[in-house]
Write a structure and sequence with these properties.
By secondary structure, this protein is α+β, with helices and mostly antiparallel strands. Helices cover about 50% and strands about 10% of the residues. A hairpin with a 3-residue loop joins strand 1 and strand 2.
């Protein structure tokens, strides 16, 4: 019987019908590693502020691949060669770029493991899949690591104007309802070109790039670093820290075998590289494991663990003050003393409810990478020089905001 395996179609709420190439693309999407992304929220606990923000890493990855396909076609139309092998590798790498995310995406990135960025775990997943698919991801991995001779291919995956950013801004804007993030992805992609092996944007696309940069800045402060989201996600981090502490002290804390393994150990990237089983165990973790644990932990005899779990589940979040300067030690100590007395707990326990840190964002990092504009006269210049709308110092400046979380006391 003939194998009539056909391309698949997904109906995406942002782009409409998205075609999935038959063969390795659909095989990778069907793989348990990738299907797990259906159960990992794109925006962590942002749904506590924006109720529609329940979209997942799966949505985002499919959207990125769709935009990558458009970018490949556009660059080919401008007369630049992208071979079929390179095109397939590009679609695979953008499909898998976030596969290393753990539960709640960035919120718990350094809580489940010991300071391992998700990109490092994504690479390990790609290498494991490469073994399973008999070396068919070798070119994908080269592009992901920026080791492939054609530099502009990596820029499509990871740069200040990559398919990842183009999708997440438009997608997150749609699902949160924050219209300021709605960028013109079609026009930006249509303006892409390549000069001297570097990605550039044609001069007539300047205004679209300006809007893209402004949208990114607004989305960071309105969504990604919204003060209530910052409070909720830091509470979740503190909750897992408390669970780890109790387990290390020999106390009984419910967790399924996979989550328990990561709560009891501080695995590093070296551990993952040396122990092939660890990656499979990590691949069993998703948001539902955390939710399930919180439901158990709310009845734990430990006051800190049970209180934090209840507060997250019931959206009774810590209050948060935000300011442009760091909170003083005396301000923090005053709040700690108040909580100690109100809850009748130790200082060490009170510090789970009172904590201060900072959030940072810069709109455009010119030292890291450029968004280059191809002028009509053939010159290639940075967006900050090409645009009359932006002050380079304001663009480059990293904005720090300091926050203090504390409970609502009667």
């Amino acid at each position: 019987m003939l194998n009539r395996k056909k391309d698949k179609i997904i109906n995406d709420p942002i782009y409409g019908f998205v075609k999935l190439d038959k063969g390795i693309i659909t095989d990778l999407i069907d793989h348990p590693y990738f299907q797990r992304l259906r159960k990992i929220a794109q925006l962590g606990l942002s749904y506590l502020v924006y109720p529609g923000a329940h979209h997942t890493r799966f949505h985002h990855a499919i959207g990125c691949m769709h935009l990558m396909n458009k970018a490949i076609n556009q660059i080919r139309n401008k007369g630049h060669e992208i071979t079929e092998a390179e095109a397939e590798a590009l679609k695979i790498v953008i499909l898998l770029h976030d596969i290393g995310h753990g539960p709640f995406s960035h919120a718990l990135e350094h809580s489940i493991t010991s300071n391992i960025p998700h990109e490092h775990l994504s690479l390990l997943f790609m290498q494991r899949l490469n073994e399973q698919f008999n070396g068919k991801l070798s070119l994908t991995i080269e592009i992901f690591q920026n080791k492939y001779p054609k530099q502009f291919l990596h820029q499509l995956v990871s740069s200040q104007l990559d398919m990842d950013r183009l999708d997440y801004l438009k997608r997150d804007s749609f699902f949160t309802g924050v219209t300021e993030g709605n960028i013109g992805t079609e026009r930006i992609i249509n303006m892409l070109d390549v000069v001297d092996d570097k990605l550039v944007v044609e001069e007539k696309g300047i205004y679209s790039i300006e809007k893209f940069l402004i949208a990114r800045r607004l989305m960071y402060w309105q969504v990604y670093l919204h003060k209530t989201v910052v409070s909720a996600e830091n509470m979740l981090i503190k909750t897992l820290q408390r669970a780890k502490e109790l387990l290390n002290d020999g106390k009984e804390v419910y967790a399924n075998p996979y989550l328990s393994e990561f709560l009891k150990n501080n695995y590093t990237i070296i551990d993952f590289e040396n122990n092939t089983k660890l990656l499979n165990d990590f691949a069993e973790l998703d948001d539902f494991d955390i939710y399930s644990s919180l439901k158990y932990w709310k009845n734990n005899p430990d006051f800190v663990l049970s209180s934090l779990s209840k507060m997250i589940l019931n959206r009774n979040l810590l209050k948060i003050k935000v300011q442009n300067t760091a909170f003083t030690a005396s301000e923090i100590e005053t709040e700690i003393d108040t909580v100690k007395k109100s809850y009748n707990i130790s200082k060490q326990e009170a510090e789970y409810f009172i904590f201060s840190d900072k959030v940072s964002n810069s709109t455009y990092n010119i030292e890291k990478a450029n968004i280059n504009i191809l002028m009509k006269n053939g010159d290639v210049i940075d967006i900050t020089s090409a645009s009359g709308q932006f002050n380079i110092d304001a663009l480059k400046k990293t904005i720090n905001k300091y926050f203090l979380c504390y409970p609502k006391l009667k």
